[in-house]
Write a structure and sequence with these properties.
Oligomer: single chain
Largest sheet: none
Helix content: 55-70%
Order of helices and strands: HHHHH
Number of helices: 5
Strand content: under 5%
Structural class: mainly alpha
């Protein structure tokens, strides 16, 4: 029993010594010239420049994707209008395009810094023909707003037009087709 009581403190001391040896070295223990021990915060000017250029490239790619989405949204809006004028109804393909347009509008709004705040649609159209016509108009306006916007700004106009387009799509879905 006495041996067990003496063995416990010895084991605790040995384990604590092993654990402290695995701890991070103090700042005074780090050798100044050892590059293996440098932290990520102590990057040199060349590394900072590389990081800055990579961030700019990501922002440019993101903006380019947003411009492409806006182009596609305007094209889909025009296609839905043309199809509606021709058939006087929205077919299955048109509803798929409407779904794609909704997704594009959400991505554009998110990329522009907008959120899911729902604002009501000003003067919501009662007829499907008016709603589809307005859909094409707003999608084109959204495209023009995105084209004018730099990647360095958050555009309230882009967010407003995206929200309006999303609300209009909801309205079109809720209008009874003739």
């Amino acid at each position: 029993m006495l041996k067990a009581l003496l063995l416990v403190p010895v084991l605790l001391f040995a384990l604590s010594a092993g654990a402290s040896a695995q701890a991070k070295p103090d700042a005074q223990d780090i050798k100044q010239g050892d590059p293996a021990q440098k932290s990520g915060e102590d990057m040199g000017p060349a590394a900072e420049e590389i990081m800055r250029r990579a961030e700019i490239r990501r922002e440019e790619d993101s903006h380019k994707e947003m411009v492409e989405r806006a182009d596609e949204a305007a094209q889909i809006g025009g296609e839905i209008l043309t199809s509606y004028k021709k058939n006087k109804t929205l077919g299955g393909d048109d509803l798929k395009k409407l779904e794609r347009l909704d997704k594009l509008a959400h991505k554009i709004r998110g990329g522009a810094g907008g959120s899911d705040d729902e604002g009501g649609l000003e003067n919501p159209p009662d007829r499907l023909a008016d709603a589809v016509s307005r859909l094409a108009e707003i999608s084109d306006t959204l495209n023009k707003s995105v084209q004018k916007t730099s990647r360095l700004v958050i555009s309230a106009a882009v967010i407003k037009h995206s929200n309006e387009l999303i609300e209009l799509i909801k309205r079109i879905r809720s209008i009874q087709q003739p």
